[in-house]
Amino acid sequence: MDARTPNKSPFHRTPAFPVLMLQLIVTLAVALVLWGFQGWIAGYSGLLGGLVALIPNGYFAFRVYRYSGARSARAIVGEFYSGEAGKLILTAVLFIAVWLGVKPLEVAAVFGGYLAVLVVGASALLIVKGFPKH
């Protein structure tokens, strides 16, 4: 008998959704600010850096929130570990793809976009606390 219970709520109702949306907004804002002040190369470099953080975070959130309920505790823990491993691998692959596949590239802008999105993720508890429960 399978004790895992699939989460029946839509993904946009999970606590991760507002964090991911804020990370998307920060990614776009960083790209626009860099583009406005330092040019289009810095702009798309910042965008790519933000996406290198955002895409793996979305993957992780999707994996972790696939199941719900006390009967699914073991599945949730398993998804947490496999989601985190996948997130790290995906981050490395995306960084390598950006470094090897995008020329010209502003390295500082890539890291700036990446770090800006990480800061939003680090403040996730503050963001989720204000998220309305439905």
UniProtKB/TrEMBL annotation:
Keywords: Cell membrane, Membrane, Transmembrane, Transmembrane helix. The keyword Transmembrane applies. It is found in: Cell membrane. One of its GO terms (cellular component) is plasma membrane. The chain crosses the membrane at residues 16-35, 41-65, 85-102, 108-128. The keyword Cell membrane applies. This is ATP synthase protein I. It comes from Halopseudomonas bauzanensis.
